[in-house]
């Protein structure tokens, strides 16, 4: 093989590697492509909370939630337990503008992904835990501290989510940080299942 042939071979290998690296994000996570345009639904006694997956922001977290939704509709330990109304204008809280819950049946607590600030209606994991929240307001002040993995349909934000946020609560002081939290008097369990998402929820 002469120098010209060798150079051509190296160039072809580079093109192949470049193509593979472009596709690597999708190939690295099972079902990445299939998760686009899909989601899950949390069914509570107050109604449904339909969530569109955002795999481009958090592919590993979305894959974990997808596995949970496809394996266990009952979702043992899955519930909403903290209801923080939107803070008054100009305040960062309390209340803190979120509805918090648990996906206790996840196999593992997902690691942090992305650095996207939470916006109203987005669903976020608290890194290193199986706890999540739905943002009731934009939370630019938290930066990318939480993993954004889904977005609740506008209709369900205005109905089911706000119905749960409006339920009675009691104040609890965090033993380590001193934060006063609003905990639901009666926790709201939910079932989880996969669903398609057409943008018309």
From TrEMBL:
<dbReference type="InterPro" id="IPR029000">
    <property type="entry name" value="Cyclophilin-like_dom_sf"/>
</dbReference>
<feature type="signal peptide">
    <location>
        <begin position="1"/>
        <end position="23"/>
    </location>
</feature>
<keyword id="KW-0732">Signal</keyword>
<protein>
    <submittedName>
        <fullName>G3884 protein</fullName>
    </submittedName>
</protein>
């Amino acid at each position: 093989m002469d120098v010209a042939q060798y150079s051509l071979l190296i160039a072809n290998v580079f093109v192949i590697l470049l193509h593979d690296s472009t596709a690597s994000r999708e190939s690295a996570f099972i079902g990445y492509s299939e998760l686009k345009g899909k989601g899950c639904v949390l069914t509570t006694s107050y109604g449904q909370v339909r969530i569109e997956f955002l795999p481009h922001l958090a592919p590993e977290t979305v894959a974990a939630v997808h596995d949970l939704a496809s394996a266990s509709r009952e979702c043992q330990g899955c519930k909403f337990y903290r209801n923080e109304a939107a803070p008054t204008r100009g305040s960062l809280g309390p209340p803190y503008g979120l509805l918090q819950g648990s996906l206790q049946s996840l196999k593992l607590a997902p690691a942090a992904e992305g650095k996207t600030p939470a916006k109203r209606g987005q669903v976020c994991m608290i890194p290193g835990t199986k706890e999540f929240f739905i943002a009731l307001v934009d939370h630019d002040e938290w930066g990318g501290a939480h993993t954004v993995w889904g977005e609740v349909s506008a209709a369900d934000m205005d109905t089911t989510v706000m119905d749960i946020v409006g339920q009675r609560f009691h104040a609890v002081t965090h033993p380590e940080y001193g934060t006063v939290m609003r905990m639901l008097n009666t926790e709201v369990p939910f079932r989880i299942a996969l669903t398609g998402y057409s943008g018309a929820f």
